[in-house]
Amino acid sequence: MPTDTVTTAPLAAGQAAAPRARRLGGDARHHFFGYYNKSTWDRSGRCVLAQRTPYRDVLLRPDSEAEVGYFDLQDGDRFHALARTRAWNWQMGSQLQWLDGLPGRQFIHNIRTPDGGHPYRGFGAQVVDADTGAIRPLPAPVYVVAPSSEWALCVDYRRLYVTHETIGYSEPDGPFDLPLAPSADGIWRMELATGALRLLVSYADLKGFHHRPSMDKAIHWVSHIEINPASSRILLLHRWTERVKDETCFLHRLITMNPDGSELRLLECSDHPLPQLADDFDPSAVGTFDYEKSEWQISHPLWRNDHQIIVWGPHDGAIHYHLYDDAPGGAVQVVGDGTLTENGHMTFSPANQRWLLSDTYPDATTHERILFLYDMDTGRKIDLGSFYADPTLSKENRCDLHPRWSRDGRQICIDSVHEGDRQMYVLDVADLVG
Q: Which single residue of 145, 168, 173, 368 could bond 386 by disulfide (Cβ 3.0 to 4.6 Å)?
């Protein structure tokens, strides 16, 4: 059963009391942000982006709608709804993100459109001015926006709905037959000022880059696309599989490139034999989180700075949190050996890279998830709390904590269902991080 309070995780010797998780807003509807890779706070620290829905966990259809807006932390956490969208999922929302390089308070999110533009009919994005309410449409759905706010990277959420439904957008009459590795689709760059689009790297390009025989019969896609703080380098996960319904059959590569698609660099590849492809294998026997705990998984990469990438994945035969230098033959360091022992959603404090924030997936018995900080200087792990995850939620409508930093590195925001509803919570960690 859901708990009405957060369980305090066991404290290490000398650790201060864990911070209280404060729920944002008192609205009876459900609120969430989505992924872990962006700050929900605007530059002033006053406004926190969110989606609002009347339901907690329905399986989404093309007409499922969410409101888009922000909590005003200086006005009793009042939620201001500024737009609506039908292009969203429970994991990433509608790719809400502030546009810090533009004046005022502007943000972007994805939408469905009657016709859509090139290259993805029926999907687009729009820029919303939180101060004036003005809305400006764009012709393609975004995945991530460069910190400069000059350009964004775009992918086909219809392809993601087929290959990795959890992060795709539902479509009528789907799923669909798609070309395995087309030369006319891949990662697109869109200029935010004009909407101009160009293909940076295609799936055919990725298949041909350090080709592996396991790619030949597989369908290809990309995810976890991230841009470094200087907007000068891009990372991505290239994934492929012959069995999209069984995530333990996904194969992974961590790749970086320039903003024009040049200088592709392979940092890691976890290609390995797949006995699961046998005809008698039963994918329904795979647990919801088995994939996230696979010893071959490469997941949740994020830039620590302009040159280093933190990721959960295997290297030299062992899986850990690893820190990669994005350079030819760059060094790879294990982070938290013996302490950080399972996959999570990790980010570094924007104010002090000493502090790594992450979480765990639910324990198979207790269904509790641990939210924690890790001190890169001392190797000390500080547990912030334990949050119940409803085991009846499916892979597609689950609610991960997805912890996110405030801009000043003094607060953390999470999504959670530990009180029975899907809501957003803020924890003050100023006393812990100093």
A: 368
